[in-house]
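[Q] Does anyone have a clean structure-token version of this?
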Amino acid sequence: MIVILRGLIHLLANSKGKNFQYGLRVICSPNEETGSNGFLDIFKNLARNSDIVLGFEPAYGEGHIINGRKGNRWYEIEIEGKKAHSGRDHKKRDQCL
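[A] Here you go.
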């Protein structure tokens, strides 16, 4: 995602005085799971009034582009332990290890 954003910044910085046929809207999704359920509705709404909508995901380990998904698979898992999130309460991060 950082590479894509840096590329867009470079493109815009080096295109002063040029007219683009399309406008540019960049939306970053925090949803990284297969299917991107939390972002799908937003993505569809953006598509209604956009000429082009692009979604980006990281490449496979070998650098190959991900060009499709098989869909979603749902599991129900029960986990016991202390409730914590290392990104929100760093004092409790050891509970996540």
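[Q] Thanks! Anything notable?
[A] Residues 2-13 form the longest helix (12 residues).
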